[in-house]
Write a structure and sequence with these properties.
This is Guanosine nucleotide diphosphate dissociation inhibitor. Pfam families: GDI. Belongs to the Rab GDI family. By secondary structure, the protein is an alpha/beta fold. 29% of the residues lie in helices and 24% in strands. The strands form four sheets. Strands 1, 2, 10, 11, 12, 13 and 19 form a seven-stranded mixed β-sheet that branches. The chain is globular, with a radius of gyration of 22 Å.
C-alpha cells in the first residue's frame, strides 16, 4: 500500500469500475479499493441466499424456488439501449469480450389502466391501440419529422430551430393529444418527469432517434439489451479491463479513510494502518459523506414469479413505464422483468422489479400500481435507499464523487454521470464515435 498512485478509486459500483477502466486505459496508475469483499457495491447482483439474508435476515430460502446459485438478482435493475452511450463505452474499451448480451423482448407503456406496446416508428404508430384514427395520423407525421431530422441538414428542420423552441411548442405544432405526448415523452424519450416540455426540443428529438435506432439495430421487440447473468457482470468486466492495464485491486479493506493535506486537497487513503498516496480520489457517496447532500429516495419492490407479466405478449424480459400523469405522481414508475432466458433465475422463474423515486415513506402502498401489473408473485421484497449527489468543488479538493443511482430502468443517466466525471478528472472527453457492429461478436441474439 505504501506507494503513490495517480488515482485511488473507492467502491466497486458500476460507475466507479467504468472510471477505473477508462483511467487505466489512459495510462494512469490506479488503485481500486472496496470495503466489501465483492464487486458491484450498490449495483451488485445477489444469489438467492444473499437476497434472503439481506431482506429476511437469514440465508435459507424455501427449496421450491430452486438453487441459490441460479439467481442473479440486480440491486439496481437497468437495461441498456442497444445504440446507447453505455454500449458505445463497452465497445470503446473492448469490455465486450468479457460479456454476452441478449435482446430484451418488449417495451411497454401504461396508459388509462392498460399496458400497451410502445410505438416507436411511423408504421407502429398507425397500428397502435393507444390512439384513435386521426391521432394516429398526427403521431405518424410527428414520427416522420423526427426520423428525417438531421441536425446538420437545415432542409430537414422545416424552418424550426429546435435549440430555441420548447418540446411543448414542437408538439403543439403537430396537434398531438396529452396522452400521446405522455408516451412520447416518457416511454420513447425516457424523460423522468414533465420538466422536459419547457426545455429545448432538440434533446427530446435526439432521445427519440436513439430509441428508434436502438430498436432497429437488432429488429427485436424493444430497444434494450441486457447481459447474461445480470448486471453484476458489468463492474467485474471493467475491473478486469483495469487490471489488464495495470490497475491494482484490493477488496475487503475496512475503513478506507480519505486523507487531506493542509490545503484541503486529497493526498491519500488509509486502511488497516497503511496509507496509499494519491493525487485524486474517485468514490461513491458513502466514502465521503461530508461532501454530498441527500436529493431523494428510491423505493423498489423485488418479486420472484413463475410466469411472465400478464398482457406483455408472454415476454420473458420487458420494461413497462408508468408515466407520472397516469398515476397522479411527480415522477414516473418503472417495471423491469427478466428471467431464466437471461440466466438470472432457474428455468420457469421470473424476476420483476417495480421502482420509483419515493414520494412517501411507504413503499408498499406507493409501488402498488406497478405491483398490481405483475399478477401472482411467489415472493415479494421491499427496499428503499437514499440518493446523494456531490456538493464539493473537485478543482479545490481533487475528490470526484458519483451521484447515487436513480429509479430509472435504463442506463443513459448513469453513463452521462460517468462521462462527465471522466472529463472533470482528465480534462478529456471519451471518443464514442465507434462502429457498433464491432460488438456483434460478443452478443448473443
Amino acid at each position: 500500500m505504501d506507494e503513490e498512485y495517480d488515482v485511488i478509486v473507492l467502491g466497486t459500483g458500476l460507475k466507479e469500475c467504468i472510471l477505473s477502466g477508462l483511467l487505466s486505459v489512459d495510462g494512469l496508475k490506479v488503485l481500486h479499493m472496496d470495503r466489501n469483499d465483492y464487486y458491484g457495491g450498490d449495483s451488485t447482483s445477489l444469489n438467492l441466499n444473499q437476497l434472503w439474508k439481506r431482506f429476511r435476515g437469514e440465508d435459507k430460502p424455501p427449496a421450491h424456488l430452486g438453487a441459490s446459485r441460479d439467481y442473479n438478482v440486480d440491486m439496481v435493475p437497468k437495461f441498456m439501449m442497444a445504440n446507447g452511450t453505455l454500449v458505445r463505452t463497452l465497445i470503446h474499451t473492448d469490455v465486450t469480450k468479457y460479456l454476452s448480451f441478449k435482446a430484451v423482448d418488449g417495451s411497454f407503456v401504461f396508459s388509462k389502466g392498460k399496458i400497451h406496446k410502445v410505438p416507436a416508428t411511423d408504421m407502429e404508430a398507425l397500428k397502435s391501440p393507444l390512439m384513435g384514427l386521426f391521432e394516429k395520423r398526427r403521431a405518424r407525421n410527428f414520427f416522420v419529422y423526427v426520423q428525417n431530422y438531421n441536425e446538420a441538414d437545415p432542409v430537414t428542420h422545416q424552418g424550426l430551430d429546435l435549440t430555441r423552441i420548447t418540446t411543448r411548442e414542437l408538439i403543439s405544432k403537430h396537434g398531438l393529444s396529452d396522452d400521446t405526448v405522455d408516451f412520447i415523452g416518457h416511454a420513447l424519450a425516457l424523460h423522468r418527469d414533465d420538466r422536459y416540455l419547457n426545455e429545448p426540443a432538440l434533446d427530446t428529438v435526439k432521445r427519440m432517434k436513439l430509441y428508434a435506432e436502438s430498436l432497429a439495430r437488432f429488429q427485436g421487440g424493444s430497444p434494450y439489451i441486457y447481459p447474461l447473468y445480470g448486471l453484476g457482470e458489468l463492474p467485474q468486466a471493467f475491473a478486469r479491463l483495469s487490471a489488464v492495464y495495470g490497475g491494482t485491486y484490493m477488496l475487503n479493506k475496512p475503513e478506507c479513510k480519505v486523507e487531506f493535506d493542509m490545503e484541503g486537497k486529497v493526498c491519500g487513503v488509509t486502511s488497516e494502518g497503511e496509507t496509499a498516496k494519491c493525487k485524486k480520489v474517485v468514490c461513491d457517496p458513502s466514502y465521503l459523506p461530508n461532501k454530498v447532500r441527500k436529493i431523494g429516495k428510491v423505493a423498489r419492490a423485488i418479486a420472484i414469479m413463475s410466469h411472465p407479466i400478464p398482457n406483455t405478449n408472454d415476454s420473458h424480459s420487458v420494461q413497462i413505464i408508468l408515466p407520472q400523469k397516469q398515476l397522479g405522481r411527480k415522477s414516473d414508475m418503472y417495471v423491469f422483468c427478466c428471467s431464466y432466458t437471461h440466466n438470472v433465475a432457474p428455468k420457469g422463474k421470473f424476476i420483476a422489479f417495480v421502482s420509483a423515486e419515493a414520494e412517501s415513506d411507504n413503499p408498499q402502498s406507493e409501488l402498488r400500481p406497478g405491483i398490481d401489473l405483475l399478477g401472482q408473485v411467489d415472493e415479494l421484497f421491499f427496499d428503499m435507499y437514499d440518493r446523494y449527489e456531490p456538493v464539493n468543488e473537485p478543482a479545490l479538493d481533487n475528490c470526484f464523487v458519483s451521484t447515487s443511482y436513480d429509479a430509472t430502468t435504463h442506463f443513459e443517466t448513469t453513463v452521462t454521470d460517468v462521462l462527465s466525471m471522466y472529463t472533470a478528472i482528465t480534462g478529456k472527453t471519451v471518443d464514442l464515435s465507434v462502429d457498433l457492429s464491432a460488438a456483434s461478436a460478443a452478443e448473443e441474439y
